[in-house]
Design a protein that fits this description.
The chain has 5 helices and 8 strands; from the N terminus they run ααβββββαββααβ. Strands 1, 2, 3, 4, 5, 6, 7 and 8 form an 8-stranded antiparallel β-sheet that branches. The relative contact order is 0.17. By secondary structure, it is an alpha+beta fold.
Length: about 200
Amino acid sequence: MANEQEWQNAWKTLREEGPLTGPEHEARQETIRAMMSQRAAAFDEHVRNYLETDGRIGYIRDMTPSGGSETMLHLILRTIGRKTGRVILVPLTYAAWADEYILVASKGGYDKHPAWYLNMKARPTVEWQVLGKRFTGTWREVEGEERQRIWDYVSVYYKGYADYQSRTWRKLPIVVLTPTGTIGEKWAVPEEPLTP
């Protein structure tokens, strides 16, 4: 399985090649499908390890290959697929902001928003897990002066965000999760794939 740096390098190469047609296009599409499948398997493994160990494995991850530090914090976001109605669990890097949690919908600088962000926007509340504690709460997308203040913080916390922003035309959404309660019931580790 490719590590984060190999993933970033391969994705950058594919983006720099520009439009292709015919057999070259098909070969690129096959490469992208293989990379996405590999990435999904890595996400699934991250989620399973996190849930099975209450974050002892997966809460802190080395993100230096993609511009972060060796001690990046992760949570598991639980959304409902807006099209499928299926529960989807996604491991995400977060930054603490007082008693709230900051997420950046970066998708590695891809030109489309990540599915977790679109799924979250379809509902007024969201659930997430940090270590062994599960929360329910609200979310808000920050704008204006508050967004700039948080962007200044998260782009230092995880330097990869500035690179991701430079790769895309879209302004990376910044989401703040605010806990309103806790969930006592431990989430089961699903048998089927966890990510879409």
